[in-house]
Amino acid sequence: MLVNKDWKIESGEMNVTLSKRLVNKKTGNKTWIFKGDFATLKGAVDNLVDKEINGTGLTDLQAVIKKIDDLKRSIVKEIE
User: Fold this and answer.
1) Furthest-apart CA pair in the chain: how many Å?
2) pTM of the model
3) Which three-class secondary structure state does DSSP give residue 41?
4) In angstroms, how far is the first alpha carbon of the chain from the final one?
5) Are 68 and 53 in contact (CB under 8 A)?
6) With contact defined as beta carbons under 8 Å apart, do 38 and 15 qualify?
7) Could you tell me which of 39, 30, 24 has the C-alpha nearest to residue 2?
8) What is the pLDDT of residues 10-43, one digit of tens each?
């Protein structure tokens, strides 16, 4: 499941995998980099939210809430 242009969540028989897209600045080639295995979808989504919030340096509570809402909408859109 593609969450947005930068993140995807995939499930197998034993786990749920979180991956991030990286783009080579010189060649423009895109590749997916493994970021973690989780026992549940909730664990993968919680980790994704943490990475997005911590990685952006958001300090305004309203901006943090908006970022979380945007991620939730992306996930729900893919599920529907």
Assistant:
1) 39
2) 0.75
3) helix
4) 11
5) yes
6) yes
7) 30
8) 998 889 999 999 999 999 999 999 999 999 988 9
Token pair for residue 50? Answer: 């943490």
DSSP 6: S
Find, among 35, 47, 55, 39, the residue nearest to 75 by Cα.
47
Task: Name the amino acid, one letter, at 3.
Answer: V
Q: Are 68 and 54 spatial neighbours (Cβ–Cβ below 8 Å)? A: no
Q: How confident is the model at residue 68, as a pLDDT?
A: 83
- Please classify residue 18 by burial: count the beta carbons closer than 10 Å to its beta carbon, then call 0-12 exposed, 13-18 middle and 19+ buried: buried
DSSP E strand boundaries for the chain: 7-11, 16-23, 30-38
